[in-house]
Structure formats: structure tokens, C-alpha cells
């Protein structure tokens, strides 16, 4: 029997509030499945499970706040003999230990404003899938008309979407909490990490021409953004320069075995998150674009996964086309480097001895001087610039 | 489909991306990206939604010119009427 524990999603996290279970006793889960939503200082996080097996028992009810490390559920390993698993969707009382004085679901405290409606125990009858969809869309189940059987299904939730005023779609963030989390991480960074900063200018003519050609005959849904080239180039360069990719923990730098770029994503109304795109260097540009699109959409809705919070090995922050020319990053501890891109600008540039207008971008590196030095940092930035000259090979 | 219908789809889709924006208070002749604080991903998502809902091709080469509400409505209207 394995225990599924309240995870630690950062050194500063002491407790989390279980918002919702996405599994029920009897469900088969595999490593990486999203099984629960937990509200933390960083917002509502979708929690993935690391073991495979069958959910035996849920030990914490939605609404409860418990310390990191508290068992949330019991999991029976696949190899373990299944004790007469009920076939009905409603599991019978668990045969092992009874729930530990868990409050009845109806005793859930009033949901905080930042939490969407649709938690178990409400008066709306809705299928689990419908509740999940409502949560994704930010639809309040109170405005959803149920089907003929009185139960709200996914289609009912989606049908209610167009009638919602934009104000009814609430982000799942507590911005004050997020600001506090950013403050804690950045204060620690500036207190503990001796940053050094480097900057270089990259000719973007080849990348722009290639993007225009590739995007030219694609529908908008399949187009690539410049930022994806930046992220891929950083990931590839980080494979060559491992001292910028990893974590500094307990006085020791531990290089990471894979590159999980943390992508800095600004939120409307303020705030910022930098969740991981796993195995960034192994994704082709189309896959990276769709992962980026998905991640940005989910993060702005306030839905990201526990591994996305915990796993970044280096951060990329890109200003986009309406930003400024140069971005000096602050390292997100315990990472050891952040690469910043300004907006692409047109500047007089010397090509083959002549001055010519050219799209260029300023790339910066803020890196941890305990781990690396400026010489290697310069080579790292030069490698990023070199990779961007052959975008088709990224 | 009238211009008002197109505007209504645009209002709808912009509302998903920038829920706090009051569409009716936007200046239809001023750059939408500036008024609604849209980044390149937001703009791409908006174009994707317009393409999918209205069935109008929006080539990359035209995308940069579709910066205002007026420009979007005029472009889609002209494409739908086959002009």
C-alpha cells in the first residue's frame, strides 16, 4: 500500500488546501496522472501522482488544509491482490482503516472567492467530468441548466459558456498570495545568489525569414512564435553548457540530466509564473509550440501541474513584441541561470561591410557565480546566437 | 453576416483572452494590442479563434495589419462577401 502525500511545491510551502479530488476509490491511476487540485500560495495546482495503482481510499476531504507530507490517499499497488473491488461506481466503505475523522463533505467551508464553483458537496448535481470542465472554463455551475435527468453533463457546462459575462470567469489566483510567493523567492535569490550578468545581440534575419516562410501557408492554429525559437535555442545550448542547467541545493550544484525550461509567463493583472516545459531540448518546434500554447493557457486560467512547478532547471523570460529591448533577469532559486530576451527591433547593422537595417534581439544571461563564470556564460550566449542562425535545424 | 455579427464574435473571443476589458469602450481605430495589453500569444489565439469560428483565412502576411477592431471587421467582412 502506498501513501499519496500532500506534496511540497517549493521550499516555502508548509501546507496546502485540497480543493478537489479528480479520482475516486477504485480508479486505476498511473504515474503522471492528475489526481487532485491543491490550493497553494502559488495558486491552484493540479497534483500528479508518482505511483501506479488503484485508489484505495481518500483520506482528506476537499476544503481541508493539511501540512506538507500528510497522507491524502492510499494507493494499492498494481501487484497487490485486489480485495474484492466493487464494480459499482460508488465504492463501498473501505475495508481497511476507516477515514480518519474526516469532516463530512457538506461541512466544507465556504469556498474562497478565488476558488471556482463546482466543488464536491455542492447542491448542483453534476458529473465529475462536467465539474472538471466547469473548472477549466471557469463556469459557475449555478448558472448551468442541467439535462433532462437533472444532472449537469459536460455539454451543459459548455452550452452555458457563451452566456457568461466575462466577469463571471474568475481567475483562480489570489494575487496577494502570488505576490508574496514572488517576493519570497526573489528576496531569497538576491540575498543568496551572487548574480553576474552578460548581454549579447543576435541577428534575427535568418530566424524571421524562416518563420515567415513556415507560417506563410499555415492556419493560425499551427503557426510558430519567435519565442519558441528562443526557448528551443536555450534548451539546446544548455545541453552543451550544463553548468547553467540544474539546481543549487545545500551548497552543491547538481546539474540536471534533462533540460526543463521554466517559461516565465506574465499574468493579466500582474503576477508571474515560470512553470516547466518538460524535456524542452527533445521537442521539435511544433511540439514545443503546442506545449507552450497549452501551458500559457492553463497558467493564465490558474491551472498548472505539480511537476511543472517543481521541475524547471533553467528559466527563459521573453519580453515579446511589445516589451522593451533588454531584460535583466533575477534567478529563480534554486536554479542557477535565467536567460532573457528583449523584443526584436530593427537596427542599423553591419553585414558584409555595409550598414543595413536588420532585425536584432538582445539576449541576456543572469547566472550564479558560485557555479559558473563569465567566460563560460559568454560561450553559452554565443551558442544560443549561433543556434538561432539555423532555425530549420532547431 | 453583418459587421455587427463580426464585432460580436470579436467581443466574445477577446472576452476570453482579456476578460477585464470592456469591449464597448475600446476605440475601434486604435491598436487592440495596446488597448487590451495583448501579447503575441494572445494575438495568435485571437486569430485562431476568428479563423475557426468565421471560416476566414487570415494569412500570416495579413495578420500584422489586423491591429484594430475596425481593421478586423473590414477584413473579415470583405473576405466573407468574396470581394
TrEMBL record, chain A:
GO terms for molecular function: acetyltransferase activity; lipoic acid binding. SUPFAM superfamilies: CoA-dependent acyltransferases, Peripheral subunit-binding domain of 2-oxo acid dehydrogenase complex, Single hybrid motif. Residues 86-102 have a biased composition (Pro residues). Residues 125-161 form the Peripheral subunit-binding (PSBD) domain. It comes from Brevundimonas subvibrioides. Residues 79-127 are annotated as: Disordered. Forms a 24-polypeptide structural core with octahedral symmetry. This is Dihydrolipoamide acetyltransferase component of pyruvate dehydrogenase complex. Its cofactor is (R)-lipoate. Belongs to the 2-oxoacid dehydrogenase family. The keyword Acyltransferase applies. InterPro entries: 2-oxoA_DH_lipoyl-BS (IPR003016), 2-oxoacid_DH_actylTfrase (IPR001078), 2-oxoacid_DH_E2_comp (IPR050743), Biotin_lipoyl (IPR000089), CAT-like_dom_sf (IPR023213), E3-bd_dom_sf (IPR036625), PSBD (IPR004167), Single_hybrid_motif (IPR011053). Signal peptide: none annotated. Its EC number is 2.3.1.-. The keyword Ribosomal protein does not apply. PANTHER family: DIHYDROLIPOAMIDE ACETYLTRANSFERASE COMPONENT OF PYRUVATE DEHYDROGENASE COMPLEX (PTHR43178), LIPOAMIDE ACYLTRANSFERASE COMPONENT OF BRANCHED-CHAIN ALPHA-KETO ACID DEHYDROGENASE COMPLEX, MITOCHONDRIAL (PTHR43178:SF5). Residues 1-76 form the Lipoyl-binding domain. Gene3D superfamilies: 2.40.50.100, Chloramphenicol acetyltransferase-like domain (3.30.559.10), E3-binding domain (4.10.320.10).
From TrEMBL, chain B:
Residues 1-80 form the Carrier domain. This is Carrier domain-containing protein. It comes from Brevundimonas subvibrioides.
Amino acid at each position: 500500500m502506498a501513501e499519496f502525500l500532500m506534496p511540497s511545491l517549493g521550499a516555502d510551502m508548509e501546507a496546502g488546501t485540497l480543493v478537489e479530488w479528480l479520482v475516486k476509490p477504485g480508479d486505476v491511476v498511473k504515474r503522471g496522472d492528475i489526481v487532485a487540485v491543491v490550493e497553494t500560495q502559488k495558486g491552484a495546482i493540479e497534483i500528479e501522482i508518482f505511483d501506479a495503482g488503484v485508489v484505495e481510499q481518500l483520506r482528506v476531504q476537499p476544503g481541508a488544509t493539511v501540512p506538507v507530507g500528510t497522507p491524502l490517499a492510499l494507493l494499492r499497488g498494481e501487484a497487490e491482490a485486489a480485495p474484492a473491488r466493487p464494480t459499482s461506481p460508488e465504492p463501498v466503505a473501505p475495508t481497511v482503516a476507516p477515514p480518519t475523522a474526516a469532516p463530512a463533505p457538506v461541512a466544507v467551508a465556504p469556498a474562497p472567492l478565488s476558488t471556482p464553483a463546482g466543488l464536491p458537496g455542492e447542491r448542483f448535481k453534476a458529473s465529475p467530468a462536467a465539474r472538471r470542465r466547469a473548472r477549466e472554463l471557469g463556469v459557475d455551475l449555478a448558472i448551468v441548466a442541467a439535462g433532462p435527468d437533472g444532472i449537469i453533463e459536460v455539454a451543459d457546462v459548455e452550452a452555458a459558456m457563451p452566456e457568461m459575462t466575462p466577469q463571471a470567469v474568475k481567475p483562480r489566483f489570489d494575487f496577494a498570495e502570488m505576490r508574496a510567493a514572488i517576493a519570497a523567492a526573489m528576496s531569497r535569490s538576491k540575498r543568496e545568489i551572487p548574480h553576474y550578468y552578460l548581454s549579447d545581440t543576435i541577428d534575427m534575419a535568418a530566424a524571421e525569414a524562416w518563420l515567415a516562410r513556415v507560417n506563410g501557408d499555415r492556419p493560425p492554429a499551427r503557426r510558430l512564435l519567435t519565442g519558441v525559437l528562443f526557448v528551443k535555442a536555450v534548451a539546446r545550448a544548455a545541453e552543451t553548457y550544463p553548468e547553467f542547467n540544474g539546481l543549487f541545493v545545500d551548497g552543491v550544484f547538481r546539474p540536471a540530466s534533462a533540460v526543463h525550461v521554466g517559461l516565465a509567463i506574465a499574468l493579466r493583472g500582474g503576477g508571474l509564473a515560470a512553470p516547466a516545459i518538460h524535456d524542452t531540448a527533445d521537442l521539435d518546434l511544433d511540439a514545443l509550440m503546442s506545449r507552450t500554447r497549452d501551458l500559457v493557457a492553463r497558467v493564465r486560467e490558474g491551472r498548472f501541474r505539480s511537476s511543472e512547478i517543481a521541475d524547471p532547471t533553467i528559466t527563459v523570460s521573453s519580453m515579446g513584441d511589445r516589451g522593451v529591448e533588454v531584460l535583466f533577469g533575477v534567478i529563480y532559486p534554486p536554479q542557477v541561470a535565467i536567460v532573457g530576451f528583449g523584443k526584436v527591433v530593427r537596427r542599423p547593422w553591419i553585414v558584409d561591410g555595409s550598414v543595413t537595417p536588420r532585425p536584432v534581439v538582445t539576449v541576456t544571461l543572469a547566472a550564479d557565480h558560485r557555479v559558473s563564470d563569465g567566460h563560460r556564460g559568454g560561450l553559452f550566449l554565443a551558442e544560443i546566437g549561433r543556434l538561432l542562425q539555423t532555425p530549420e535545424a532547431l | 453576416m453583418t459587421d455587427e455579427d463580426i464585432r460580436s464574435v470579436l467581443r466574445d473571443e477577446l472576452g476570453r483572452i482579456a476578460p477585464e476589458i470592456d469591449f464597448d469602450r475600446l476605440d475601434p481605430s486604435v491598436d487592440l494590442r495596446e488597448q487590451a495589453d495583448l501579447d503575441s500569444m494572445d494575438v495568435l489565439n485571437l486569430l485562431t479563434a476568428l479563423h475557426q469560428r468565421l471560416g476566414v483565412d487570415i494569412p500570416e502576411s495579413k495578420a500584422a495589419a489586423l491591429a484594430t477592431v475596425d481593421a478586423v471587421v473590414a477584413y473579415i467582412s470583405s473576405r466573407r462577401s468574396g470581394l
